[in-house]
Design a protein that fits this description.
The complex is a heterodimer of chains A (305) and B (258). Chain A is α/β, with parallel strands linked by helices and 305 residues long. Chain A has a domain at 2-148 and 168-224: Rossmann fold, CATH 3.40.50. Chain A has 8 helices and 12 strands. A 7-stranded mixed beta sheet of chain A has the order 1-9-8-5-4-2-3. The two termini of chain A are 21 Å apart. By secondary structure, chain B is of the alpha/beta class. Chain B has 2 domains: 1-90 and 186-258, Rossmann fold; 99-169, no CATH class. In chain B, 38% of the residues lie in helices and 25% in strands. Chain B contains 10 helices and 10 strands. Chain B has helices spanning 45-52, 80-89, 98-101, 108-118, 124-137, 154-166, 184-201, 212-218, 236-241, 246-253, and strands at residues 7-16, 19-29, 34-38, 60-66, 72-74, 91-94, 172-176, 204-209, 221-226, 229-235. In chain B, β7 (172-176), α7 and β8 (204-209) form a beta-alpha-beta unit. In chain B, α4 (108-118) runs parallel beside α6 and α6 (154-166) packs parallel to α7 (184-201). The longest helix of chain B is centred in the last third of the chain and has 18 residues, at 184-201. The chains are: A alpha/beta (305), B alpha/beta (258). The A-B interface holds A 134, 143, 147, 149, 151-152, 154-156, 158-159, 161-163, 226-230 and B 80-81, 84, 88, 103, 106-107, 109-110, 113-115, 117-119, 122-125, 127-128, 145-146.
């Protein structure tokens, strides 16, 4: 179907967008606070980013440039279909280039390239409530947020240390926003938590099934919870990216064969390709010079527009 | 000991529609004193306890508590945040069923440490050391610290619940049938432990029980309730040895002799 006139701009009707924008504004005004909103049915199942898509649809304009990543990659099913969705229903420019995007919708990663003022990062959130698995009653967790009773959050970290000798939570690592609300940064690896702290970009979080929106305005303090004698630490990798030799980036393990062969490559495909285009070579990088031919999953890449 | 009470209760009533929960209850509780509230089931003991611990709002009446700064505060006029803070610092609540007062899915150590973390303790080593100390005080082996209470026996769960409540050094502990559902030998050890802790720490406690033996062992003073009203109150030994109200006489004479 090519006739975009059958859709309202960006799929959602204007009333719905207004309602979501109100929720977003409230979320920005109260950093880290989960604002309920009337989540709509989207043409995709819950769990595939319905919250993020609604937030993106409410803030996107014709001049925006959209980038969508899924676990850091621009070329996985979820990312490709959401990008195609907005290309169709909003006719916006799409890109894989982090620096030139104005809106980046993400599932579980923050790009390696530093974000700048004016960019908006939209997270797809499955479970917005950081206290959910500790206290199942929503009435109670809301009260705990209201009264700032966050001792329970540390009980979880205590349990980690008691069981594993260290804080073993590696993703969805709880953070405290601007010294007030404890927030689930969506299941991003804790490697990305420091990037949220005083980020110049606006960060919006949409949870479609749970019907919650929350936000971290630019230059807001985002501090990961920890103990004095077990301070917060990010993951470290003992080898660089096998394709672009990047260090201090988040790596994915890629299985190569049935005999235990594997390699660690950048989870951020855009970052990896840029580095290889600049001539960086990892120990498993093929000798070709076209970045788009070397990445294991880059056949479906769309060119930047 | 000071000459001012810790808790002043006056004309406290709670009605459930037209039914009486408790009616016109007044008493003072002094620091370090253990008060037993006895009576048959349905006599309003638990309603009274829930009102006093602010888990339930009374229909009328007042209760004021002497805070650590020596000022009396009217409990039912405090904000919810203040009441909840009081609940997890200066007060304890021991439930009849330990599953109501414990987090069954986190380890014993975390159960004891939760209150410490709730008041801002952020040093794992210290929290754990305190948890070990408290587990030994309630006679739970140190090597059970990382086990979940689900793996504990009923008596151990109840002792863990007591440790969890006492770790922040509360001044007032509410207990709702603390020995209910435990067999007699476990009950005896738990009572012994409670008596020791209450004396050592100088705790004030309000113990709701239908078991007169528990009241006799733990408390200095007791109130007998019937149909929501206090029918008799006084020193425990006096009430049990020389009951005056007809209902108390019936209650005392109903104790099974073996």
């Amino acid at each position: 179907m090519t006739d975009i006139a059958t859709y309202n701009f960006a799929y959602l009707d204007e009333q719905t967008k207004r309602m979501i924008r109100r929720a977003i504004l409230k979320g920005i005004a109260i950093p880290g606070y989960q604002v309920p909103f009337a989540s709509r049915e989207m043409p995709m199942p819950y769990g595939w980013g319905t919250g993020g898509v609604q937030v993106t649809a409410s803030i996107i304009g014709p001049d925006d440039v959209l980038k969508v990543i899924d676990q850091g990659a621009d070329d996985t099913t979820n990312a490709v279909s959401i990008r195609a969705f907005f290309k169709k229903v909003a006719n916006v420019a799409v890109t894989t280039d982090t620096a030139s995007a104005t809106i980046i919708q993400t599932r579980h990663r923050i790009p390696e390239h530093p974000l700048t003022a004016g960019q908006v990062l939209v997270y797809q959130v499955p479970i917005p409530e950081p206290l959910r698995f500790l206290e199942p009653r929503e009435t109670e967790t809301r009260k705990m947020h209201a009264l700032e009773e966050y001792g329970l959050m540390h009980v979880k970290l205590y349990e980690d240390i008691a069981k594993h000798g260290r804080i073993a939570t590696t993703y969805a690592y709880p953070v405290k926003v601007e010294g007030r609300y404890v927030m689930d940064p969506s299941p991003t690896p804790k490697f990305d938590n420091p990037k949220m702290h005083r980020s110049p970009a606006l960060q919006l979080f949409g949870a479609g099934r749970e019907k919650r929106i929350y936000a971290v305005p630019p230059f807001t303090a985002v501090v990961s919870l920890d103990f004095e004698d077990h301070p917060f630490e990010v993951q470290t990798f003992d080898q660089p990216c096998a394709l672009c030799a990047a260090e201090n980036v988040y790596l994915d393990e890629v299985i190569l064969d049935d005999h235990g062969g594997h390699m660690f490559v950048c989870s951020d495909t855009d970052h990896c390709e840029k580095r290889r285009a600049d001539g960086h070579r990892g120990h498993l990088a093929p000798e070709t010079h076209l970045a788009s031919e070397t990445h294991p999953a880059s056949e479906t890449m769309e060119p930047a527009q | 000991m000071t000459d001012e009470p810790l808790l002043r209760v006056s004309a406290l009533s709670k009605f459930y529609g037209s039914r009486v929960g408790c009616d016109n209850v007044s008493f003072d509780l002094w620091p370090g004193e253990v008060l037993a509230v006895v009576g048959e089931s349905g006599s309003g003991k638990t309603t009274l306890l829930n009102c006093l611990s602010t888990r339930l709002m009374p229909s009328s009446g007042t209760a004021s508590y002497r805070m650590r700064d020596g000022q009396f505060r009217e409990l039912y006029r405090m904000s919810e945040a203040e009441r909840r803070f009081l609940m997890r610092t200066d007060w304890g609540f021991v439930h009849q069923n330990p599953a109501d007062g414990l987090r069954m899915t986190v380890s014993a150590g975390a159960n004891v440490g939760e209150r410490l973390m709730a008041v801002g303790d952020r040093h794992y080593g210290k929290i754990r050391a305190t948890a070990v100390d408290w587990l030994s005080r309630v006679e739970i082996d140190e090597d059970r610290i990382d086990d979940e209470p689900r793996a504990f026996s009923g008596g151990m769960r109840q002792r863990l619940q007591i440790a969890r409540n006492l770790v922040t050094g509360p001044r007032l502990v509410f207990m709702d049938e603390p020995t209910g559902g435990l067999d007699v030998s476990v009950q005896a050890r738990l009572l012994d432990l409670l008596r020791g802790l209450v004396t050592d720490l100088g705790l004030a406690a309000i113990v709701v029980t239908h078991d007169l033996a528990v009241a006799r062992l733990l408390s200095q003073r007791m109130m007998v309730m019937k149909d929501g009203r206090v029918v008799e109150s006084g020193l425990t030994d006096r009430v049990l040895d020389d009951p005056r109200a007809p209902y108390t006489q019936l209650l005392v004479s109903s104790i099974l002799q073996v």
